[in-house]
Every structure is written in C-alpha cells, then in structure tokens.
Amino acid sequence: MPGQGHPLWQAAYRPLFLCAGASALFAPTVWLWPGGFGADPLLWHLHELLFGMGGAAVGGYLLTALPAWTGGGSVSPRTLQALTLLWLTARLSVIKVLPVWLLLPLGSGYFALLAVVLAHALLTAGAWSRLWSVAAVAALGLGSSALQAGMLSASMVPGAMVFLFALLIGGIGGRAVPAFTRSWLQKEAPLHQLRDRRLLSLTAQAATALGGGLVLAGQETPAGICLLTAGTIQGLRLASWHPLSARRYPALSLLHLAWAWLPIGLILMGTALLRPDLLPPATALHALTMGAMGMMILAISGRAAMERRGGRLMVGRGLAVAFILIWLATALRVLAPFLIGIGTDPIMASAALWIAGWAAYLWALRPALKGEPPWPVFSARRE
Fold this sequence. Notes:
Elements: H1 13-26, H2 29-32, H3 41-70, H4 77-93, H5 100-125, H6 132-149, H7 156-188, H8 198-216, H9 220-239, H10 243-246, H11 250-259, H12 261-274, H13 281-303, E1 307-309, E2 312-314, H14 317-335, H15 346-365
Antiparallel strand pairs: 1-2
C-alpha cells in the first residue's frame, strides 16, 4: 500500500472510488467461473455488488462531501489507509475460510470505522441534519454482518439493502441532478425554468420506503403498488428536469441517463411483484442494482475524472465508452428473459459488457488519482 504522502490519500474519493470500480469489475466473474472463489457464488456476487461496490462508493461520496457539510478539513491519509485496508479485508472475509466470530468484525470493520468518522465530524460541527449518513452506513454494516452470519437469507438481504440504496439515490441523486441541471440552465438556457417540487420527492421516498418494508414483510401486492407509485413519481420528476435540454452538455446528460434507472427499476420491481409471471423479480432487481446503483456510481464518481475546461466538465473517451458499455450491459440483463433462443446467452453477454465497462472506467479514472485534488470535486467550478 502506498505511503501516507502518496497523492492517492489526498482525497477520500480516490482510493474508495478506485475500490468501488474494482469491486464492480469482479462482481460478475463468479458467473463466468462458478465456484471458483471458495464461496457460495450467489452470496459472493451479492456481497460484492452491494457491500463492495456500493459500500466503497458510499464512503467515497460521503467523505468527499463531509468537509462541505462541516466546514472542516478533509479526512486524514491515515484514516483513508485504514478504511481502504478494512475494505480489502472485507473482500476476503466473504470466502468464509475463518470462523464466524472472526469473519464478522473483519467483514463489517470498514462500515464501523466509516460510521465513527462521519459521526465524530458531524457531531463536532453540530451538523445534525446530516446524521442520516451515519444511520445509512450503520445499516449497510448490519446488512453485511447479517448476510455473512447467515442470519438473513440471500433473498432478504438484497430486499433490504437494494431499497436502502434506492432511498439514497432518490435522496442524494434526487437533489444533485436537478441542482446541477438548474445551474446549467441558468447559464445556457435561462428560458427553461426547473421546478422540482419537494412534495413529489418526499412522496416518492415514502412510497419507496413503505414498498421496501412491505416486501420484507411478504406483502407483495401492496408493495408492488407502492413501488409502482414511487417509480412513476420519480419518472415525472425526471421529465420536469428538462432531460432533452441536458443532452447538449454530456456531463449532465450522463447524470440524467443514469438516474433514469431509478424510476425504471422501481416500476419494474413493482410490476414483478404484481405479475411475477410476466417479469421475474431477479430481472427487476438488476434494474436497481446494475442500473440505478451502478450507473449513478459511475456518473457521479466519473465527474471526479473529467477534465475541467472553461467552467465545464468534459467527458473523455474512456469514460464515455465505460458509460455506454455499462448502460448496454444493464439493458441486456433486464431484457434477458425475453431474449431466450437468440443463440447467445444474454446474461453472459451482459456480464462481459459490464466487466469491459468497468475496466474502461478504471482506465479513465487514472488521471484523477494524481496531482492536487480539485475543489469542489463533483462540480466544474474551481476555488
């Protein structure tokens, strides 16, 4: 591991977005080489997608946003090294070569330390409104531990964690995407006014939370109705953000195309719960994991890798290729049940596209891991 003076540790997003991309790259490989990792293939795949890719991305985003929330400094290189080491250790813990009493602290240590770092900074600064981030990280840690200990089935953990990520995307992305869009419209298209009604956002979030709770309780019909409602509302919100105007700014258009998977995934999940004979629930689940989670992680983390030119973020060729490949991989996986008999296994083809896409992302991320970190990270503005 590089020393504390290495540029990798100058910003939280650098090591953790790198970890998220690496985990996303390897998550589907278990289907290409079944049983090749000494663990249950489904368990390994779920753990890496939710807690490997998702956990690292959440940590990278929250710790990067933390100085803006608290007015304090960035996370120290020593803390980032510890978090990265714990994240790497957790990747090994899922193989279950050690006893459970040792696996659990190894598997959840990353989330525990991340929650402590966030809580200390937020409580010290009195940023009470941001404590939701600590609760979200703690929930991820509990979910990881429960899955490893066998306390929850392999179907309940995705049901809980995927809906948690849907709420995070609806809350964080649901503020970031219209905010970036509004800022761009004010400069480039002042006649287009963006109005994102808070009531719609709160209603969609409440319907998502209620739907997720009902799924876990086994109440599939009311859960399906709630998720259909949530997806429809989120789709209406997206339509009001002038997505067609955003196409003139590729960096912004990527956010719109990525966030679109949230309403699509919620609607598909609602449909699958109401009519599993028409749409397998696993297919709808991938619309939320590969689509909403994967695409939003790529779109937001990719902003850190974009070149800044004249107050704009420029989407490089590598990042554009990554986005197209991962978007196509997601669409192919969602359509897989309807493509049986075409001569090529659509699930394997989707996995290959996904792996190629995240490999392109990691290649495009390289320049962002060196030199002085820009500030703010996710915006084109310089300070």
